[in-house]
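We treat protein structure as text, and this decision shapes the records that our systems exchange. The remainder of this section carries one protein's record, kept here as part of the documentation:
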Amino acid sequence: MELSLIIPVFNEQNNIEPLYNEIRETLKNLKSYEIIFVDDGSRDGTFEVLEKLSKKDGKIRAIKFNYNYGKGNALQAGLDICKGEKIIVMDGDGQHNPKYIHDYARKLDTCDIVTNIRSERKGIGPNIITPIGNAIIRFLFKVNLSDSIGSMIGLKRKVKENLFVYGNLFRFIPLLAIWKGFKIGEQEIVIRSRKTGKSKFKGFKPFKGFVDLLTVKFFVSYSTRPSHIFGSAGLASLGVGLMSLFYLFVNRIFFGNAITEHLPMFLTGILLTMLGFNFLFFGFLGDMMSHNYLTTNNKKEYIIDRII
């Protein structure tokens, strides 16, 4: 199978058929491909449209969830069953133009994963929130990507076999791929206006996205060495707490000042010392869990490109 298209959809009954017609026209000269629609618990006639199209075209595969589990789970379901050597993920609302499929496929000849550079977009999100998000990503991950948040992504099969997407981490697949050492490319695309239906964008989405970004940062930097972050916090807390208690001890022994005269400092010192020991303990416990996971499941922290 040359190419797999994965398209998560939710309440998009009026957008699916026009999108499918565009895809079919775009790929009319490609013999070996599949279109995987994942219906994420739609409450309209989305799956009925998919059933009708699948009877007409054997290249369509449709997955139906009985509940709205979220785009991340829908994407992972598509990745689990796809057969293509090249995989392209698109939105089902028609905002991603299928004409870019060939551009992505060509870039996958030289790259392992392709992310989008979105242009000609209007609104607060694209003009304010997205640039801020990309700036934070470049700062945290030291990557030189123009736009690493968009959801039109191309990847090779070997990438999907070494990544697991859950929750809302699908937004950061390029960052997870870079973490694994894959070569990344960028493709400029123009986002089209939605013709029908309602946008799934929520006002609090940027805040949830920031929390997800911190989760990815933790995975990338500390997933196999959690004691480094917990240990650093623990040593800092423990150091300040012990210094406070030592100061009160010296003050009491050599100057005769009662500890009760500095009760807030004493209580703070006790608290910071206990927190420090707890952080160290959590770090060691995290290291033990990480070690047990890697050894029990025979997991490796590296991916071999080739052996000569």
